[in-house]
Every structure is written in C-alpha cells, then in structure tokens.
Amino acid sequence: MLVIVIACALVGLEAVRRQKRAVLVTEFQFRLFCMRDNLRDLALSDPATCRSWVFAYLDSTTAKAIGILPRLSVWKLLALESVYKNDEQFDVLSKNLERELEKPQFRELKVYGDELMTTLGDYLTQRHNTLHGVIALVDHVSDPIKIAVAEARRRSLDVAMKSPETSTLPEYAPAFLSPAPCPV
What we know:
Shape: globular
Largest sheet: none
Helix content: over 70%
Structural class: mainly alpha
Strand content: under 5%
Number of helices: 9
Number of domains: 1
C-alpha cells in the first residue's frame, strides 16, 4: 500500500513539475510576442529600420526563440557555446552584427537585442530554478569565480543570439563568410 501511495505521489509531483514548466514557457512566449510587436512598431515608425537586415534578423530570431523556447535549456546553450568557441565564421558573423548595432541609426535595435538576450537569460534562470541557489552560492564566493560564471553566462547567451540553431542571423547577415570591413 505504501508503495502505491509513493508511486501516486511521484506521478503527481511530475505532473505539477511539467505544468509549471508549461506555464513558464507560455509566460515567456507571450513576453516575446509583446517584444516582437514593439519591434515591429519601431520599424513602422522608421522606414530605414524596416529595410535593415538587422531588423529582419531580430524579428525572425524573436519568432524562432518563441518556437524553440520549450526546448531551450542551459545545457543546450553551454553545448552551443563550446561548439562555436573557436569558429572563425561565427566570429565574422558576430563582428558584422556588432558593427551594425554600433551605428547610431540602430540604437533602438541594439537596445532591443540586449532586452531579448536578458529575457532569454531570465527564462533560463527561472526554468532551471536550481540556478538561483547556485548563483546565490557564487555570490558569496571569491570574485574570480563570480567573474567566470558571469562571463560564461554572457558568452552562452551571445551564442544563443547568433548561432544558426537558435537564431536566424546567418540567413540575414550579408557577407557571412567575408571579414567584417573596417568601419573607418
């Protein structure tokens, strides 16, 4: 009898855990939909922004993020970061995007990109609720460990914003394989 009660309790706990994750995914999908709507409003108010490949990349990457959100995890991002760590084509792609986002006319798009990265980071932190405890422990440890963890988080989110598995940057960035020209 005790075994049956324990089995039922485990089944119930698993159902609650899955439901909590489904609610979290839906909450962040709606947040991303709202962000994408704001991005499109920005493009409507500025025709130059609307014609930019940076806008197309951010718009389609947001849509892709909405779709892959249920499968997105810290472990996937860490794997992507290790795959693209020394990839020269990825570095060229990143430099092209960073160069474009530094242009004054794309200031709002840069803010949007930063907000998108922060939102994905918030989702991952909430999805992996054990991260709260780990982050709290790291905050009480030495500064080099805090810096290393923050850098790993930043790098993995940066890869999420640019890799073909999680974004559409390779589809929209011109001259993906050519070196980023000097802005001078």
